[in-house]
Amino acid sequence: MAEQKLGNPAVVGLAGFGLTTMILQFHNVGWMGLGPVIWLGLIFGGLAQMIAGLQEMKTGNNFGYCAFTAYGCFWLALTLLLIGNHYDIYTSSKTDIGWFLVAWTAFTAILWVGSMRIHGALALTFTLLLIGFILLDLAHFGYPALTVVAGYELMATAAMAWYIMAHIIYADVFGRDILPVGKPWIN
Amino acid sequence: MNRAGKTIGWLVVLLACGTGRVAMAAESGTATAEEAISKVRAAARFLHNKGTSGYAEFNNRDGNWVWKDSYVFVYDCRQDRMIAHPMRPDLVGKPIMQITDNSGKYIFKELCKAGSEPHGNWVEYAWSKPGAGALSRKISYALAADITFASGIQVSAGIYDETMTLKQLDAVLEKMSDPSRYQAL
């Protein structure tokens, strides 16, 4: 009996991470309001990405297990935090959200080092993500205009996440590697 | 003696008139420059704490941000939009940079420039008082609001006054920007 083929949870994780990151930046650069960011953040960036992350455990991929589950929680926490602000439940000021982002920047820096051992595309994604977080930190502590810069920069991050997602999906459906992801930055 | 008595009498009358005027101003509800500055700073602080979900409160005609004959309005200088205005819901969501007063002054271009100064600043223009049809001289204090995941947002409130000079208003702003007397934002 042929072994049953399993899907790669990373495709869902990357899809959710990319899409919600992208849509938050559509808000940050001023194209749209926060409504869709909240709901997509809860469902796709939060719930779906977190489930994908938890499924990574069975594949033995610790990087994906940690990253997707954690960024899924990031989205759940961020959207609930913004909903909390609306209903006056543990209101978070701009400074509070700034510190929230600083903690996530530190966490991202740890994964960034790990990403350089995986492949070039992932290393680039995490480099862009780390820069984006730093820009958002600065935007929350005295340089509000950087929100827009971070917005465009993080759109590139989201596009890179989708590129890796497309790499996995296309390799599966075409039966060969269509989109190269490059060598690891650290051997 | 009689002369002194008359003088005192006149003084009493003058004092009574003065007190009456102050009382009248309070009763008729004319917002002062100090109140406008305090309200605008409180509004900036409120939005800093509450984020974009705080915008809606500024559309409430019966809310905290409407007092006497004045009110706070919120606008986006970067995206050229009125975010909230308790008296003119028709302006909410609409572009603002093209709005001029009867002298051709681009009101929001001036407000955005003044609001981006470190302590904010005053802008003089013509606008109708709430409930009045005719235009009055309005001097508004504009200040940037620091909000999460947003940039270019400002809050402003004005006084309707025909006599106060900008120099006098600058003095009020300077006095209220003294951190030893007034708490920093």
TrEMBL record, chain A:
<feature type="transmembrane region" description="Helical">
    <location>
        <begin position="121"/>
        <end position="143"/>
    </location>
</feature>
<dbReference type="InterPro" id="IPR000791">
    <property type="entry name" value="Gpr1/Fun34/SatP-like"/>
</dbReference>
<feature type="transmembrane region" description="Helical">
    <location>
        <begin position="149"/>
        <end position="170"/>
    </location>
</feature>
<dbReference type="GO" id="GO:0071422">
    <property type="term" value="P:succinate transmembrane transport"/>
</dbReference>
<feature type="transmembrane region" description="Helical">
    <location>
        <begin position="7"/>
        <end position="26"/>
    </location>
</feature>
<feature type="transmembrane region" description="Helical">
    <location>
        <begin position="63"/>
        <end position="85"/>
    </location>
</feature>
<dbReference type="Pfam" id="PF01184">
    <property type="entry name" value="Gpr1_Fun34_YaaH"/>
</dbReference>
<protein>
    <submittedName>
        <fullName>Inner membrane protein YaaH</fullName>
    </submittedName>
</protein>
<keyword id="KW-0812">Transmembrane</keyword>
<feature type="transmembrane region" description="Helical">
    <location>
        <begin position="97"/>
        <end position="114"/>
    </location>
</feature>
<dbReference type="InterPro" id="IPR047623">
    <property type="entry name" value="SatP"/>
</dbReference>
<feature type="transmembrane region" description="Helical">
    <location>
        <begin position="32"/>
        <end position="51"/>
    </location>
</feature>
<dbReference type="GO" id="GO:0015360">
    <property type="term" value="F:acetate:proton symporter activity"/>
</dbReference>
<keyword id="KW-0472">Membrane</keyword>
<keyword id="KW-1133">Transmembrane helix</keyword>
<comment type="similarity">
    <text>Belongs to the acetate uptake transporter (AceTr) (TC 2.A.96) family.</text>
</comment>
<dbReference type="GO" id="GO:0005886">
    <property type="term" value="C:plasma membrane"/>
</dbReference>
TrEMBL record, chain B:
<keyword id="KW-1133">Transmembrane helix</keyword>
<protein>
    <submittedName>
        <fullName>Methyl-accepting chemotaxis protein 4</fullName>
    </submittedName>
</protein>
<keyword id="KW-0812">Transmembrane</keyword>
<dbReference type="InterPro" id="IPR033480">
    <property type="entry name" value="sCache_2"/>
</dbReference>
<dbReference type="Pfam" id="PF17200">
    <property type="entry name" value="sCache_2"/>
</dbReference>
<keyword id="KW-1003">Cell membrane</keyword>
<feature type="signal peptide">
    <location>
        <begin position="1"/>
        <end position="25"/>
    </location>
</feature>
<feature type="domain" description="Single Cache">
    <location>
        <begin position="22"/>
        <end position="109"/>
    </location>
</feature>
<dbReference type="GO" id="GO:0005886">
    <property type="term" value="C:plasma membrane"/>
</dbReference>
<keyword id="KW-0732">Signal</keyword>
<keyword id="KW-0472">Membrane</keyword>
